[in-house]
Amino acid sequence: MGQEGTSRSPRSWAEQVYDECAAQLVLYGRALGLGHAEAEDVVHDTFRVLLELRECPREPKFFALRSFRNRALNHRRGLWRRLARELESRRWFEAGDPTSPAEESAMVELTRLPPEQREVIVLRLWHNLTFEEIAHLLGLSPNTAAGRYRYGIARLRRNLQEESHEPHPEPSPRAHRSDPAWLASAPPLPEPETPAV
Predict the structure, then answer these.
(1) Cβ-based neighbours of 179, under 8 Å, separated by 6 or more
(2) pTM, 2 dp
(3) Of 5, 24, 54, 56, which residue is most buried, by most CB within 10 angstroms?
(4) How far is residue 90's CA from residue 16's CA, in Å, rounded to a whole number?
């Protein structure tokens, strides 16, 4: 993620980051409790502001991710948006037809994770962030980020094994990374006080 700041035009680096990250940012917005349309709006608002920057940030993807997170959390705070989000919470990720009973179980169990664990899992698996990057983004220590991930994955595994009453082989932590449809409705994340970038 580390790219030195340059004097490239804002349009060129912002377009490149948009092309590489927009879909992942929408998914992250969904994990933060936004509806699909809300997440897309925040992505577009984030990149509108990034295009106004005079210089490329030192770490453009991280800067965009951090800016998006701050804007998404601020967006969630509105009363009307909160009401709309509660009505839409049953369709957190527009789940397509699951391909297997195991996928359906994973959808249900992921929604039961504490929001802090769910957020770290999404950042790790869908955004390919390291624990150090996640820690920096969320204002945690890398050990706390790793612990939330580890406990979340262990809880998913345990709950899925208990549900089926038979042991499963240890799943790959990157399984289903490319298909966000296996996530279903989930309670919103807590609202930390974070200023917009």
Answers:
(1) none
(2) 0.53
(3) 56
(4) 33
